[in-house]
Design a protein that fits this description.
Layout (H helix, E strand, L loop, with lengths): L11 H4 L2 H22 L8 E5 L14 H21 L5 E7 L8 H4 L3 H9 L9 H12 L10 E4 L6
Helix pairs in contact: 2-3
Length: 164
């Protein structure tokens, strides 16, 4: 499971410097690429690769202040079907899980900053709440199981319906 991810700053196009940009791409794109490349010799046939993306890649204009982060996760979304096609003959499935606003440390600075922020975020989902780590973990668990053996190359919306 390629779950590493970082948002390095929230300054949009004008305020994102080369160091922040490079750090996000190093962690969000380069690391999963080379982890998979390095691990392929050890991954058994019929194995699973799960990339953790973001729902923002389908609606990038929602948060222009983190455009570089969204771009980096978009690159990961493109890696998913390419790997699915390449590794399919070995029975290896490759999928992306794309969370929305999840109550994690990465989102703490804005999500936990005020009751108003939490309420506004919860309203984005028809389910009326903010996602929890277990919501995404359960999807990853399914994709890692044999029950998902016929699912590959997919982008799985894990936003609680926020993109509807």
């Amino acid at each position: 499971v390629n779950n590493a991810g970082v948002v390095d700053g929230r300054e949009g196009l004008a305020g994102t410097g080369p160091e922040s940009f490079d750090r996000m791409f190093a962690i969000n794109v380069r690391a999963p690429f080379f982890v998979v490349q390095h691990g392929l010799g050890r991954l058994r046939d019929g194995g699973r690769i799960i990339n953790v993306s973001t729902g923002l890649t389908r609606r990038p204009g929602l948060n222009p202040e983190i455009v570089a982060y969204t771009m980096s996760k978009g690159a990961l979304d493109q890696l998913t079907p390419a790997l699915a096609r390449e590794l399919g003959p070995r029975g290896i499935t490759v999928n992306s899980v794309a969370p929305g606003a999840i109550d994690t440390d990465m989102n703490a600075s804005w999500l936990r900053s005020s009751a108003e922020a939490r309420e506004a975020t919860a309203r984005q989902s028809p389910l009326g709440r903010i996602g929890m780590p277990a919501d995404v973990a359960d999807i990853a668990g399914f994709l890692a199981s044999d029950d998902s053996r016929w699912v590959t190359g997919q982008w799985i919306d894990a936003t609680g319906g926020a993109l509807l």
